[in-house]
Amino acid sequence: MISRRQFLTESLVGIGALAISPELLLAEKNKDAVKITILHTNDMHSRIEPFPNDGRKFGGLGGMARRAELIKQIRKQEPNVLLLDAGDIVQGTPYFNLYGGEVELKLMSQMGYDASTIGNHEFDNGIAGFNTFLQHANFPYLIANYDFSGEESLKNVFQPYKIFEKQGIKIGVFGLGIELKGLVLDKLHGNTKYLDPVGIAKEMVQTLKSKKCDLIICLSHLGYKYEENPNKISDCNLAQAVEGIDLIIGGHTHTFLDTPEEVLHSSGHLTLINQVGWAGIRLGRVDFVLEKGKKKSIKNTSYTLK
After folding, report:
1. With contact defined as beta carbons under 8 Å apart, do 121 and 88 qualify?
2. Sheet containing 169-176: order of strands
3. Which residues of the chain have pLDDT under 70?
4. For the whole model, what pTM was predicted?
């Protein structure tokens, strides 16, 4: 478990700058300003315990017990917290081989995750295996660009988006998954159909705006960017192509971003992209302050669990 001293130290590293930021001062002084705290993970890959502290890379880091304690402490400090995940929760340790995702989802449910999206490894035990371990999650998987109408057991399971409300602020969250063909064996993803994420994202933004959402968040398992193939759909390309997303929480490429990347759409809309590597080594955090319909973001350093 993370110690109190360690938590306070890492909290000061992560949010110390917020204490003097104009946005945070505004939130404290203006009763009409509201701060929304987004905590997030991606690509946990069944890493329940910390990496063995034996000299290897990432030795001693991570662990779901530490994450749970940190989340608990942050919730004590902040009243408006959303806890989100960007997919590939499973596959990578014997926990998945033995229990098929049950342990991971039960622990995440205990932590109070609000939503996740689907990663390609969620299909590693096939449609039947996916359907089985979903029963252990008390949070929704959000996916807008996978069509499960050809899979009887999954066709009514998923939502494309969900709207959360915190202190009068409406936060719309939707999910996007990566192209499965060539990445996942056909027999494992079955009749799941992949839909164009850019077109779907535009539809989601319009839908969520029509429902008066103040913040729009995309849970993406598309990957951060692809240097070898810059035209391949990625979070960076998505932010440039789709106006209106405030935050993309990414996964798949296991990218460690120390601070969220800012992408300015041609319309002038600013999208933040954040991703926190893999294996539960870090917990990401982005805070938004909203005042009378105006969005102000506070970019926050990720917490390393050690």
Report:
1. yes
2. 161-166, 169-176, 215-220, 247-249, 270-274, 261-264
3. 1-29, 292-293
4. 0.91
